[in-house]
Amino acid sequence: MRWLGHPAVKPVVFVLWLLPAAWLVWAAFNDRLGANPAEALIRSLGDWSLRALVLVLLVTPLRVGMGWPQLARLRRMLGLFVFFYASLHWLAYAWFDMGFVWRDIVADVPKRPFILVGTLGWLLLLVLAATSFNRAIRWLGAARWQALHRSVYAVAALAVLHFFWMRAGKQDFAEVAVYAAILGGLLGWRLWRWLKRPMRNGAVGMVSARDR
Amino acid sequence: LPSVRSTVAGAQAPDKLTSYEHASTYNNFYEFGTDKSDPAAYAKTLKPRPWTVSVEGLVNKPRTFGIDDLMKLSPMEERVYRLRCVEGWSMVIPWVGFSLAELIRQVEPQGSAKYVEFVTLADRNTMPGVTSNVLLWPYVEGLRMDEARHPLTLLAFGMYGEVLPNQNGAPVRLVVPWKYGFKSGKSLVKIRFVEKEPKTAWNIAAPQEYGFYSNVNPDVPHPRWSQATERRIGDEGGLLAKRRKTERFNGYEAQVGSMYAGMDLKKFY
């Protein structure tokens, strides 16, 4: 897996991750989103947010488990793509479903708690994106920064709950179960590693502090 | 499917028709899957012929109709109805069929018959969705006797001048235009006259969300979303089209409102 360290990998991944958004914009303007384009767009953006979340949470297990250290330098960009798709997802809801009528949005959210849950997840992502640059790490200090950025695990939980609740009306949980299993596995792997961490000289969580 | 223009009051909605393309590719028909595109993709396996509809229960003349005999029961009429889905979208569809009342008259319901139960096909061999436990199969719906006898309540065999495509409920379905779409069962196999309010599929699945009546009502929100507005499929502007205001009884209040006089529609949602 030496090629993972190639300088072209990062720009290629960047372009690849822009493709779904580019396709959706093209499809929206060319009437290719089917009978209910607003719904199709909002849901696709939600799907891609989840996929981006799965991918960024895969980085550490692959890096550690497979021994691919080169993946580390992709992590910030992949994390920002989660924020990118989640932002488009929320924006598409506010615009195409609610017409940017804030009074309606405020009335809609308590009726649809799954939107509140999704919004909460997005706000957390906003905080993480806003503190994603190097100077923020220095300001906060590595330990505090890392503690803060562990809240991506909460984002994963909120995202699954959001998706579950959205589908609850249709009692259609097959797809939800797939994402829940994958994200659960990725978080479970971290929990397992944390429980197995060596406890020497009272240095609690040395390993987990280094390899998030 | 030849037909004459219906003269029943309210049967010619002035709205612009939804395209056949949208009406036949954006469907809820869970027997073929829960995705809107599933019915169009998988309903090819449904065999609309031979087909029988058994009419039974509290009637003097119970009878099993072959589909061709059923179609000859009364002259076919074309009716343009608005269709409002409980999910918040709507279409305008030209159906072909005749009032269910014509069939009801033939079988002579007894005085004790207060409700009509509609049972739809649940065939594991041809319907991939029936193996999932999304709903209790077969899909059952029901109407109060006066609702079933209302001239707007349509037994439909076609749409857009043609026989129903499988994904829209071939060979025969119900269309109740003032109620949310799920009240209108597709691919009917049994019509039963009963004394007690039937246990309907969605009411069993989520009683606090889907009541027996399920009349379109902008003032009674679904527990998880507002019903005040709807997205008309195919509206100009596509993505940017504004949602429309939903009307009481889907705009059929003049025709059907009297049936619910004095009823608390928030309680009987």
TrEMBL record, chain A:
<dbReference type="GO" id="GO:0046872">
    <property type="term" value="F:metal ion binding"/>
</dbReference>
<dbReference type="GO" id="GO:0010181">
    <property type="term" value="F:FMN binding"/>
</dbReference>
<keyword id="KW-0285">Flavoprotein</keyword>
<keyword id="KW-1003">Cell membrane</keyword>
<feature type="domain" description="Ferric oxidoreductase">
    <location>
        <begin position="46"/>
        <end position="160"/>
    </location>
</feature>
<feature type="transmembrane region" description="Helical">
    <location>
        <begin position="148"/>
        <end position="167"/>
    </location>
</feature>
<keyword id="KW-0472">Membrane</keyword>
<comment type="similarity">
    <text>Belongs to the MsrQ family.</text>
</comment>
<dbReference type="GO" id="GO:0016679">
    <property type="term" value="F:oxidoreductase activity, acting on diphenols and related substances as donors"/>
</dbReference>
<dbReference type="GO" id="GO:0020037">
    <property type="term" value="F:heme binding"/>
</dbReference>
<dbReference type="InterPro" id="IPR022837">
    <property type="entry name" value="MsrQ-like"/>
</dbReference>
<dbReference type="GO" id="GO:0005886">
    <property type="term" value="C:plasma membrane"/>
</dbReference>
<dbReference type="Pfam" id="PF01794">
    <property type="entry name" value="Ferric_reduct"/>
</dbReference>
<keyword id="KW-0288">FMN</keyword>
<keyword id="KW-0813">Transport</keyword>
<comment type="function">
    <text>Part of the MsrPQ system that repairs oxidized periplasmic proteins containing methionine sulfoxide residues (Met-O), using respiratory chain electrons. Thus protects these proteins from oxidative-stress damage caused by reactive species of oxygen and chlorine generated by the host defense mechanisms. MsrPQ is essential for the maintenance of envelope integrity under bleach stress, rescuing a wide series of structurally unrelated periplasmic proteins from methionine oxidation.</text>
</comment>
<protein>
    <recommendedName>
        <fullName>Protein-methionine-sulfoxide reductase heme-binding subunit MsrQ</fullName>
    </recommendedName>
</protein>
<keyword id="KW-0349">Heme</keyword>
<feature type="transmembrane region" description="Helical">
    <location>
        <begin position="12"/>
        <end position="29"/>
    </location>
</feature>
<keyword id="KW-1133">Transmembrane helix</keyword>
<keyword id="KW-0249">Electron transport</keyword>
<keyword id="KW-0408">Iron</keyword>
<feature type="transmembrane region" description="Helical">
    <location>
        <begin position="49"/>
        <end position="66"/>
    </location>
</feature>
<feature type="transmembrane region" description="Helical">
    <location>
        <begin position="78"/>
        <end position="96"/>
    </location>
</feature>
<comment type="subunit">
    <text>Heterodimer of a catalytic subunit (MsrP) and a heme-binding subunit (MsrQ).</text>
</comment>
<dbReference type="GO" id="GO:0009055">
    <property type="term" value="F:electron transfer activity"/>
</dbReference>
<keyword id="KW-0479">Metal-binding</keyword>
<dbReference type="GO" id="GO:0030091">
    <property type="term" value="P:protein repair"/>
</dbReference>
<feature type="transmembrane region" description="Helical">
    <location>
        <begin position="173"/>
        <end position="192"/>
    </location>
</feature>
<feature type="transmembrane region" description="Helical">
    <location>
        <begin position="116"/>
        <end position="136"/>
    </location>
</feature>
<dbReference type="InterPro" id="IPR013130">
    <property type="entry name" value="Fe3_Rdtase_TM_dom"/>
</dbReference>
<keyword id="KW-0812">Transmembrane</keyword>
